Amino acid sequence: FGLKTVNWYVDEAAMIQMPVLSMDRKWTQLVACHYMDEFAEFHTKDLPVRSALARMTPSAGVATAFHRLAMLALVEEKNGLPFNTDSLTEDYDVAHRLSALGYPSAFVRYHARVPRQRKAWFRKGMVDIRRRELVSTKEFFPHKFAYSVRQKARWTLGISIMGWAQLGWFGGLVNRYYLFRDRKALLTAPVGMFGYVIVIQLLGLLLVERIWPEAVNLPPVIDRHWVWVIVTINFLFLVNRILHRAWFTGLNHGLKHVPLTPIRIVTSNLISFGAFWRASRQWISHLITKRPIAWDKTQHAYPSLSELQQGSGRLGDTLRFWNHVSEADLTRALETQKAGYRPLGLLLLDLAAVDDDHLAEAFAERGETYASIFDPFQIDRDVLALLTPEEAARYGAVPLRRNGSGLDVALAEPLPADHRTALEKRFGQQGVRSVRFLFAPLSDIAFAIRFAWGEDPFSGVREQLERLRAAGRLDASREAMLWRSVRAGYARLGDILIRQGRISHADLQTALAASRADGRSLGETLTRLNMVSATDIEAALKDQRSARWLNEHLAEALRSAPVDPRHEPA
């Protein structure tokens, strides 16, 4: 819709600027959220008015389009360089140069009717709708104070200081007024900080008078009526300012972000003062040393898919986003799920529609954590001892490594909140202060639960691999790939029985609960409950691949594997 909007409006102005907003951020991230306030107000109130009055709109650097004739004029003016390489804010600079050349720019707010889906009200499933949405660009601004100060220092230096020095004051009264507004940060930033100092001092005096009555002889802070009148008027303007900002924040980001608007205004002013101080030092240093001012690159952060989806996406959407599953396979899995419930991730594995490596990556993306494959025989025995094999099987979790007082734990799939809490409590009883949950392929988890807690059944193969490494015929990466191929073929007994059509997911959950209650193995429990015959259990166990079969498979793979030419004897 952005290109269509530009195509429609670009003949009316030499440069088109569309709205730029911040992505919705967590309310606790005050630094990141203050961008929501500022850009919502500036691109919903200030820029439309400025564009209408001055017929000039400063570019934001993104969501900007130029008419071909305007670009040619810029190239001619700068001898082949359309943008001012001496400016730290060339996007701001270019709009003013176009205005000086007689080319108008325009700010365009256009709402498109976008196809979306929502849940049906009176039946199951989704319905197609068209929703009115603003055509805009959303950015992921810094969330750390220092990074924000660096970014705004560049803006202050480029717009307020260098813009003043390079562009001067031009145009009519309206344009000069807006140039003043662009540059007033050089005054408002230090004055605002001075005001905060006065407010803190006043509150301190009031507190002293409250807790120390003998201090009543202190002179009054304000002893003239006209000063109180000015303070009252100023306070009313402040309330008006807060209401404006809260209104436009709520309009663009929802009511949930409105209550903290006053707090974020203070955050914004603190950042602005830090930016003013940094920009002033850089400019004064430039004037004294005559050295050019270096581009102060902002430390950017980039949103994860879960942040792009704002928590509303589903597992299937994530897998489709990364093209890890086809639309046809996803549809087939969802239709199969209607006939009998099974978690979508496991169902896609049953249908061989996705690799468990990719499934782990999707879970990690949605959980804003990491995905990792691991060799269970490389885990420290003391770390493994933090869980029993039965607990590991119940939660589908394997402790990987200690990080000081923290612990990394690999999961096969997301755990319910109560299970996570139980695991954290279990680890906490053993001195672990913090737990970081990662996601690993289901085959790695299943393989670890089956073999890691007992004696290593692959010691013979490991000795053979050690001899190959010593002879220079095998490197670490090829060995890791070999072990991963072995683990990738391993599956849990219950999953095998479901894939063979012997039991349903609901039957498996019933059998697992009974197995934990009476201490029997899953196979024995299934047979006792007459869910599966002993013959079917034997067949499934053969498909599960025992340690003996895996040893034979490894030995055969080593015998038939071609020698890496890098390790051929000279």
Concise structural overview:
It is built from 25 helices and 10 strands. With 570 residues, the chain is mostly helical.
Outline the structure in words.
This protein is mainly alpha-helical and 570 residues long. It has a domain at 2-142. It has 25 helices and ten strands. The chain has helices spanning 2-9, 30-54, 68-77, 90-100, 145-167, 173-183, 185-211, 225-253, 261-289, 305-308, 315-321, 327-339, 344-350, 356-367, 381-384, 389-395, 417-428, 442-451, 459-470, 476-488, 493-499, 505-518, 522-528, 534-544, 547-560, and strands at residues 15-17, 20-22, 64-66, 105-107, 111-119, 126-134, 137-139, 397-403, 406-411, 434-439. The strands form four sheets. It has a three-stranded mixed sheet with strand order 3-1-4. It is elongated. The two termini are 63 Å apart.
What's the overall geometry? elongated
Low-confidence stretches: 562-570
What percentage of amino acids are in beta strands?
5-15%
- Count of DSSP-assigned helices: 25
Topology of this structure?
Layout: H1 2-9, E1 15-17, E2 20-22, H2 30-54, E3 64-66, H3 68-77, H4 90-100, E4 105-107, E5 111-119, E6 126-134, E7 137-139, H5 145-167, H6 173-183, H7 185-211, H8 225-253, H9 261-289, H10 305-308, H11 315-321, H12 327-339, H13 344-350, H14 356-367, H15 381-384, H16 389-395, E8 397-403, E9 406-411, H17 417-428, E10 434-439, H18 442-451, H19 459-470, H20 476-488, H21 493-499, H22 505-518, H23 522-528, H24 534-544, H25 547-560
Helix pairs in contact: 2-8, 2-9, 4-5, 5-9, 7-9, 22-23
